[in-house]
Design brief:
alpha/beta; 385 residues; 17 helices; 7 strands; 8% strand; Rossmann fold; two-stranded antiparallel ribbon
Length: 385
């Protein structure tokens, strides 16, 4: 592999001592010499770890479509797994067994054998932020077992990147807004049964809101962590901010701006789905219909200006902020906490939205008469029927 002499050694993936399950991180560091670029300086690996709901998908798609542009400036965006993101690295590093081991060998080979002209490797996966904690399990995640799994995951991840100078890059948003946005991602887009409760979600996913512990843990195992404010990056240009950290300008075809890939419905829309799910049986397909409705112009024209909060009271939100809004990170979030808006969804609003959804769905069916899975009748069966 590349070294000070510039020579390259062929690597047999199944014999790579760096990734052998029987070799500790310390031993692997002694076996592997530091990787160097053509200039002789140590190669750098930038780990973009999210968090979720901070524009990661838009960044990944844009830069994965501009790998040649990045290579001109000495930046390697590796391509492995499905899609533009590097989630295969996250999942294969977390999982045990022969198949994940072979996948890690393949990924490391892809990274190590990057062109010598590229002194920086960029890896982007927001799953790195949460691996060890199960986002889809409806039970408390702050267990000793889960914390141990996270530490083990981060140690194995650092082993994959042995020989690189690693820097972690993370966008953080104000923790109460992060909690709301993450809950809506689960509420509308993930597979589960029954109804979801926001307060229960906050209790189950406490480790994800503990920014300070997350940053300390990643710093301990991976390397220095650079924190960027998502709110400030949105004002300055999210892609521009990210590319600035890489030392390049945004790709020419992206300078007009990026579109949101996975926009979140409003809190008011989330309140409607939560109420509906408490009364009706809603499967994954029906939630997708509601998601499309809540992001449609029909919704925007009727309820786009309606604001709401997912917190049951101002006191509950303030209690959450007091616990998780770490004082050492406050300078990253210059925005003041937004005024609290009553979370109540009135009975009249609820009935009006259901009728509006029925009309929207009927219109949608007429425009897509070939669809066999949609029904123009109201698609939900009341639980008490």
């Amino acid at each position: 592999m590349p070294g000070n002499s510039g020579r390259t050694t062929r690597i047999s993936p199944l014999r790579d001592p760096i990734l052998s399950p029987d070799i500790t991180l310390g031993e692997s560091c002694r076996i592997e010499t530091t990787l160097h670029s053509r200039s002789g300086s140590a190669k750098r690996a930038i780990l973009h770890v999210g968090t979720h709901k901070t524009g990661t998908t838009a960044i990944q798609r844009t830069l994965a479509a501009n790998t040649n542009y990045l290579a001109k400036y000495g930046i390697h965006w590796p391509m492995f797994g499905r899609g533009p993101a590097h989630h295969l690295l996250s999942t294969s590093t977390f999982e045990r067994g022969l198949v994940p081991f072979v996948q890690r060998c393949y990924i490391r080979r892809n990274i190590v054998l990057a062109p010598q002209s590229c002194q920086t490797v960029v890896i982007s996966s927001e799953k790195i932020y949460r691996m060890g904690f199960e986002f889809f399990e409806r039970r408390p995640q702050n267990t000793r077992k889960n914390f141990q799994r996270r530490h083990d995951f981060l140690r194995r991840l650092r082993k994959v990147l042995t020989g690189f100078d690693v820097q972690v890059l993370i966008f953080l948003r104000r923790v109460d807004e992060f909690a709301e946005s993450l809950f809506k991602e689960l509420l509308f887009r993930k597979k589960y049964t029954g109804a979801l409760d926001f307060t229960e979600f906050l209790d189950h996913q406490r480790p994800l809101f503990d920014y300070r512990t997350q940053i300390q843990t990643m710093s301990e195992h991976l390397g220095p962590v650079k924190i960027l404010s998502y709110e400030q990056a949105c004002r300055d240009g999210l892609l521009r901010t990210f590319c600035h950290e890489l030392g390049v300008d945004p790709p020419p075809d992206s300078r007009a701006g990026m579109h949101r890939i996975r926009p979140s419905p409003s809190n008011f829309a989330a309140r409607f789905l939560m109420r509906l799910a408490s009364e009706c049986d809603i499967d994954f397909i029906k939630r997708n219909q509601i998601l499309e409705f809540c992001l449609s112009n029909t919704w925007k024209d009727n309820y786009g200006s309606r604001s709401s909060s997912l917190w049951n009271s101002l006191k509950s939100r303030q209690s959450f902020l007091d616990e998780f809004a770490d004082a050492s990170l406050l300078e990253q979030f210059s925005d003041s906490v937004t005024d609290y808006t009553d979370c109540t969804l009135s009975e009249n609003d609820y009935r009006d939205i259901r009728r509006l959804f029925e009309r929207w769905l009927a219109d949608r069916n007429r425009c897509d008469s070939s669809s066999s899975r949609l029904s123009s009748s109201f698609p939900f069966r009341e639980k008490n029927c």
